[in-house]
Design brief:
Radius of gyration: 26 Å
Strand order of the largest sheet: 1-2-3-4-7-9-10
Number of strands: 10
CATH topology of the largest domain: TIM Barrel
Strand content: 5-15%
Largest sheet: 7 strands, parallel
Helix content: 55-70%
Oligomer: single chain
CATH architecture of the largest domain: Alpha-Beta Barrel
CATH class of the largest domain: Alpha Beta
Length: 429
């Protein structure tokens, strides 16, 4: 709550919402006239003392109609979201939890719905159901179901095989209870703080973990300490011993069998302590920090991805579909069909690396096709540097890093907020 109150824009937004809700509740008392009352002698009046916003072609008071209209607007908004959230969450739970034919049937139906623009779909549904506020609510709610179903399914896929879920299943917990008590409460999106091999040149894993742990103790959402692109088994074990709660081992520069062996060794060590492991198959090109993926992209082969996931027991898999690390010189062209093929044969959550610079529409499509985690890095640094440069340009004499660093962080926060909306993670943490 304190963090919320410190954010002026959030407080202002909440006040505006409360005002609209109060207007809707007390419309009978606030409206100076009946919203439907007609006065043909007062048509098209300009704003005046009796009619502050004027009248329409039937002499109805515009202010009164707007006040009463608030009720309908809020009713449609809240109700349609409630319908899509309820049904989408239910379908996502069923698809993610049961998998197999259930997952295929539900998700292919969602794909069909996603193929039609949501506005057009809502219009078609409304035309079939007929006129009326209730039918409009149903039309909008139904059209938005696929987005919620996809998000919930992806979140459940990331945790359904965790040990505590298996323990609940072994203890005789019913499917419904398992979903309601153990799975849904744990799909809140976490804050992921990660270090790369390049980052760890400046401080040890233990030092970074200690700083993050102190901040995490005051956070209202889960905080994950992640090793990104761990370049060796030794580095992965350093992060493991330091207390990291997530480890990525990147053996993509090795041949297929060597990648499997190094990944298996990290999985064995980390799984013994309940730490999830991410791996990479295929080559995400580009250059960032000390990570050099080369010039060409070695795309992930779907059949190899299925074998890799099965043999290593990895918890998530980063795949190569045309993205690259670092700054793009042009617009990346992603192989969406390849992603769909990989999703069909790989049961673990998929991860997209090298997302900075990828158009938002492409990211949305990747999420819709099954990407469960999307990595941004370069654009975060660009945002921070932009804020810092603008501050220094205005005040070149400043010497306190806390001042210009704070501006840089605000730029990063705004960028992250925008990408949360792109990925459909808003409201989940």
């Amino acid at each position: 709550m304190r963090r919320f109150l410190k954010n002026k824009l959030s407080v202002i937004g909440m006040v505006v919402i409360i005002i609209f809700i109060l207007i809707a509740i007390f419309a009978d008392q606030l409206a100076p006239y009946d919203y439907a009352a007609q006065d043909l002698t007062s048509m098209y009046l300009s704003p005046c003392a009796e009619h502050p916003l004027g009248t329409d072609n039937l002499g109805r008071d515009m202010l009164s109609r707007i006040i009463y209209g608030t009720r309908i607007s809020l009713l449609i908004g809240f109700s349609s979201v409630g319908i899509s959230l309820l049904i989408g969450t239910l379908l996502g739970c069923l698809a993610g939890f049961y998998g197999g034919k259930v997952d295929t049937l539900i998700m292919r139906f969602m794909d069909v719905m996603l193929a039609v623009p949501s506005v057009l779909l809502a219009i078609v549904i409304a035309a079939v159901l007929g006129t009326g506020v209730f039918n409009l609510i149903l039309a909008i709610g139904i059209a938005s179901i696929p987005s919620y179903a996809r998000i919930v399914r992806a979140s459940i896929l990331s945790i359904r095989d965790q040990e505590y879920i298996e323990a609940a299943r072994i203890s005789g917990c019913s499917d419904a209870r398992m979903i309601l008590r153990h799975i849904l409460p744990n799909i809140l999106a976490p804050v992921i703080v990660q270090t790369t091999p390049g980052t760890l040149k400046y401080a040890s894993p233990a030092m970074f973990h200690a700083m993050v742990a102190a901040a995490a103790s005051e956070a209202s959402v889960p905080v994950v300490m992640h090793l990104d692109h761990g370049s060796s088994y030794e580095l992965a074990m350093q992060a493991f011993r330091a207390g990291y709660t997530s480890v990525m081992i990147d053996g993509s520069h090795h041949v297929f069998e060597e990648n499997i062996e190094i990944t298996k060794s990290v999985v064995r060590a980390c799984h013994a302590a309940g730490i999830p492991v991410e791996a990479e198959l295929g080559k995400v090109g580009g250059k960032e920090d000390d990570l050099d993926g080369g010039n060409g992209n070695g795309y992930t082969v779907p059949s190899e991805a299925a074998e890799f996931a099965e043999r290593t027991g990895v918890d998530s898999l980063a795949v190569a579909i045309g993205t690259a690390h670092g700054v793009y010189k042009g617009t990346p062209k992603l192989d969406m069909e390849r992603l769909s093929e990989i999703r069909k044969v790989v049961s673990v959550p998929l991860v997209l690396h090298g997302t900075s610079g990828v158009p938002d529409d492409a990211v949305r499509e990747c999420v819709a096709r099954g990407m469960c985690k999307v990595n941004y890095a370069t654009d975060l640094r660009i945002a921070f540097s932009k804020g810092l440069k603008e501050y220094l340009a205005k005040d070149p004499e400043v010497f306190d890093p806390k001042k210009y660093s704070a501006v840089g962080r605000e730029y990063v926060k705004e960028y992250v907020k925008s990408k949360i909306l792109v990925c459909g993670s808003n409201g989940k943490a």
